[in-house]
Fold this sequence. Notes:
Elements: E1 7-11, H1 18-23, E2 30-37, E3 61-66, H2 72-90, E4 94-99, H3 116-127, E5 133-137, H4 143-158, H5 172-175
Parallel strand pairs: 1-2, 1-4, 2-3, 4-5
Amino acid sequence: YRYHPRVLYIDIDVHHGDGVEEAFFTSNRVMTVSFHQYGKDFFPGTGHHDSIGEGDGKFYSLNVPLYPGIDDQSFISLYQDVMKQVIEKFKPDAIVLQCGADSLNEDKLGQFNLSTRGHGACVDYTLKFGIPIILLGGGGYTVQNVARCWTYETAVTLGIPLENKLPANEYSNEYTSPYLH
């Protein structure tokens, strides 16, 4: 709070960011936004759109519950529309972006259909606001997806283009994927 009195926490993990939301549910200094798969049978079963905060924190919690199968185009469009309005209205001094890789296609638990590049597009969009940011890893239950995703998002953050190939090594078959695009 001393250095950044208004912090925006954004969660693009496939699961609802329930722990962070609960920690700041009554605060107007931290706004939480969670884009997540929602359904009564999907863990943790929280994150309904009417969960908006309480007391001083009322309207500082925003949930974007989504059906399984959302793709890059739909997710990116929704992310950009929502985050543009949130950042313009909340005016954060810093952003924490939780990039859980379990929202990628082929995840063992999540059922979204996002690519690594789609995930990275959300990171890139957020960086363009020029607000101090910290990126966090999160869920991801397909190891190859996690490695590819966080490598790609690090490259996006640093502005370094990556080739869609890895030098030959003993793990090449594990980390090479036609789904990198």
